[in-house]
């Protein structure tokens, strides 16, 4: 080999070594701890429909921590839906109005609009001349009855004994009728001090709930029956929907319906009452729907839409609408296989009542992710963009 050829050969070796080192720097070995792995088609040179967008590795404990719930795919009856307007109202069976039973002046406010109160809690303090007279009569009648009872029937006449007993009981009953509780009356009797018969008394909350009305001013004199507070337990509310006679023919007490708060927010409800008389103006039939409102999302007066099934429907393999997302333009769900969630393209049919018909791509019994699908999709997209693994 000539000197010129040796120099060329040595220079070529240096170039090859430099290129190899640079390739190693920009193409490091895979990190086995990544939660999102590359598609099998990239590793083995063949395609896999379940792994077109990669695979999310996530244990059952990790899924629970991230709020990813899963469920098996099953057959459901999909029916056509009618969407009608509805209005949120109080559940009057879980509500109470608080009003004085006698004319009185408002002395002090103990609760305010929006307060959460418990049964037996004082709401307002009132003062009344009628109450003062009744309280005084109770103290006098109770003392007399105690004296007569100690003397006994052998000493006092039968008439005096009975009259004293009846007077004490009537005085107590009158205070109960005026709005004092048995506990408040017992406290007044125990003290036995006539100076405590001031006519002051508290109206108490009859149930747990939220104050939704408190229309009064301190110092105001109010008549008997004037509603001072309204309390309701908002953990459940009603939605009043108006159905045409044709739609109402498909409604049944106990049937499930969907309440559309907005286009992306849906909650479930249950028909609890169907009116038997058409509204004379709209010629529609009011239907009352009970809705779980533990999250305090619905409030009286709010307008919503109600979707209820009409017709017999058809049985089909279906998945929740929230479980389906678009990937590469195809409807996709995340199928669970052990600790891996595989994006799986499906062919969809009709969508009814929040459920999507699956025409192809899944079988009954397959387990899929039903929540946090956007999170799983974002992990796949981050992996494809080279932003690292999706913790």
Biggest sheet strand order reads 4-13-16-15-14-17
Helical amount? 25-40%
Q: Assembly state here?
A: single chain
Number of continuous helical runs = 8
What is the averaged pLDDT score? 83
> DSSP strand (E) fraction?
35-45%
Query: Can you count the beta strands?
Result: 23
Main sheet record: 6 strands, antiparallel, barrel
The assigned structural class equals: alpha+beta
Low-confidence runs of at least 5 consecutive residues: 1-53
> What gross morphology would you assign?
elongated
Radius of gyration over all CA atoms, rounded: 37 Å
**Distance between the ends:** 58 Å
Quick rundown:
With 391 residues, the protein is of the alpha+beta class. It is built from 8 helices and 23 strands. The protein has helices at residues 3-26, 40-44, 60-66, 129-151, 158-178, 182-191, 245-248, 373-384, and strands at 36-37, 55-57, 70-72, 74-89, 95-98, 104-109, 116-117, 122-127, 200-204, 209-213, 221-222, 229-232, 236-243, 256-262, 265-274, 285-292, 303-320, 325-327, 330-337, 340-345, 347-352, 355-360, 367-369.
List the helices and strands and how they pair.
Blueprint: H1 3-26, E1 36-37, H2 40-44, E2 55-57, H3 60-66, E3 70-72, E4 74-89, E5 95-98, E6 104-109, E7 116-117, E8 122-127, H4 129-151, H5 158-178, H6 182-191, E9 200-204, E10 209-213, E11 221-222, E12 229-232, E13 236-243, H7 245-248, E14 256-262, E15 265-274, E16 285-292, E17 303-320, E18 325-327, E19 330-337, E20 340-345, E21 347-352, E22 355-360, E23 367-369, H8 373-384
Antiparallel strand pairs: 1-2, 2-20, 3-23, 4-13, 4-17, 5-12, 6-8, 6-11, 7-10, 8-9, 10-12, 13-16, 14-15, 14-17, 15-16, 17-22, 18-19, 19-20, 21-22
Helix pairs in contact: 4-5
């Amino acid at each position: 080999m000539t000197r010129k050829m040796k120099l060329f050969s040595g220079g070529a070796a240096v170039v090859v070594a430099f290129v190899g080192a640079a390739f190693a720097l920009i193409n490091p070995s895979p990190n086995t701890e990544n939660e999102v792995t590359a598609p099998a088609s990239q590793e083995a040179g063949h395609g896999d429909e379940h792994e077109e967008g990669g695979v999310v590795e996530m244990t059952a404990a990790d899924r629970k921590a991230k709020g990813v719930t899963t469920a098996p795919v099953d057959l459901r009856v999909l029916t056509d839906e009618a969407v009608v307007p509805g209005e949120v109202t109080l559940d009057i069976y879980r509500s109470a109005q608080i009003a004085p039973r006698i004319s009185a002046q408002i002395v002090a406010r103990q609760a305010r609009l929006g307060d959460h109160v418990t049964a037996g809690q004082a709401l307002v303090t009132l003062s009344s001349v009628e109450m003062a007279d009744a309280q005084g009569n109770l103290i006098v009648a109770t003392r007399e009855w105690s004296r007569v009872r100690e003397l006994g029937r052998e000493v006092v006449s039968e008439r005096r004994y009975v009259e004293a007993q009846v007077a004490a009981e009537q005085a107590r009953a009158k205070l109960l009728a005026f709005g004092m509780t048995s506990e408040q009356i017992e406290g007044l009797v125990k003290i036995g001090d006539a100076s405590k018969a001031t006519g002051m008394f508290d109206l108490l909350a009859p149930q747990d709930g939220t104050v939704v009305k408190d229309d009064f001013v301190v110092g105001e004199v109010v008549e008997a029956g004037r509603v001072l507070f309204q309390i309701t337990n908002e953990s459940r509310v009603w939605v009043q929907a108006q159905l045409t006679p044709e739609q109402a023919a498909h409604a049944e007490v106990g049937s499930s319906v969907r309440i559309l708060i907005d286009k992306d927010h849906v909650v479930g409800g249950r028909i609890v009452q169907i009116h038997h008389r058409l509204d004379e103006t709209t010629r529609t039939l009011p239907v009352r729907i009970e809705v779980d409102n533990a999250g305090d999302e619905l409030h009286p007066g709010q307008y919503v839409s109600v979707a209820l099934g009409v017709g017999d429907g058809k049985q089909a393999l279906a998945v929740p609408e929230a479980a389906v997302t678009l990937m590469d333009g195809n409807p996709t769900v995340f199928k669970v296989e052990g600790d891996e969630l595989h994006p799986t393209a499906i062919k969809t049919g009709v969508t009814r009542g929040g459920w999507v018909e699956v025409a192809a791509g899944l079988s009954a019994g397959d387990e899929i992710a039903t929540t946090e699908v956007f999170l799983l999709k974002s992990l796949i997209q981050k992996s494809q963009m080279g932003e690292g693994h999706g913790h």
